[in-house]
Every structure is written in C-alpha cells, then in structure tokens.
Amino acid sequence: MVSRIGAIAVVAGTLITAHVSEAGVIYDNGPANGTIDAWTINFGYAVADSFSLAAASILTGASFTLWNLPGDATGTVDWSVVANPTTGPILAFGTASVSQDFQFTNDIGYDVNSASIALPNIVLGPGTYWFELQNASVSNGDPAYWDMNGGPSQIWDSDFGYNPDPSDVAPGLGSASDAFQILGIPVPEPASLILLCSALVGLALRHRGRDASPTS
Question: Mean of the per-residue pLDDT values for the chain?
C-alpha cells in the first residue's frame, strides 16, 4: 500500500510539473515605454516593483524591458522576490542568465531591449509581493537600465526610496514604475489534488482486488 501511495504522489507531482510547462502571464505591469527614462540596475543600485497575485501561483519566469548602450548586452542579473524591499523577508533569490531581443533605438541613443529570465518554480500564496533586480552584468561594463513605463505597481529604488514623484524622475508618466511581467501558473487547488489522489487510490485498490481474485 505504501508503494502505491508513493506512486500516487509521483503521478500528482508529474501532473503539477506538466501544468508548469503551460505557464503564462500571471501579472502584467503594462507595455514598455522606452522613451522617457529608466532605472539603473547595476553599479550598486537595486530596483523593486510590486506585483499582486489573485490566487496561489507557481512563478516560472519574468520578462522586463532594458535600456543598453548600442552594442551592449546584459548577460546576467541578480533577482529576488521579497515581501518588502526594505524590511523583507526575502522569499526567493538568485542570479539568472538574461535573454534579450533588440526592439528599437530611442531618441536618447539607447537600445531598448525586451529581456526575460527563468525563475525556479517559486510557490506563493495570493497577496502582494515585490520583484527586485540588481547587479546586472553588461558586456562592456556599462550601465543597465530598467525601463520606466508608468505602470500601476509601486516602485522602490535604493537611491530614491518608495514611489518617487514622477514629475522629478519621469515627466510625462503617471508613475515611475517599470515595464515587467511575471510568468507562471495558478497552483492546482488542494481540493482538486485530493480528488485526484482519492481517485487514484480507488483505482489502485480496485486493481489489487482484481489481482487477488481466483482465475477460472
């Protein structure tokens, strides 16, 4: 019986893993702007934006918009998911390789790039969290900037603090928050998993009974 329960757990885990492969956007802070201003995310600066989850979710990745000097490429970035950028706690963190694609060169002379990173299947309950970027590595040792798009999230910068006045740092935007998306899936409901496991237990017991019956 223990071996069958173990097999059921493996099946349930496999089903959850299969759902992770179908991840999509679970938080969207709006489209890129790319023309007004951007926050530095290296040289000791850290930037965090809030995001909200309506349901328990598995976070599998993030996409965001970067400004780089022409010819530069952002290779890696340190990321974290925190309950609060100044008081914590840190819920997950790591260093991720950055995939980026050129979009256009803006009037200020920067290349605007769409970027993405993978996250290690972070499970979070419903609520509000902060996504933080810092220590970006750039091919030529130049700055990397996170595009301000005036989205609905709150913003924290290690130099300016919480929610700087956009009229000071990003005139023309309603807020100084950034262009980003959080990717993932809703966590399967516990009730659904219980029903699944119960059904598998029933099938296992039925199969065991069939094996024990005499053959004619």
Answer: 86
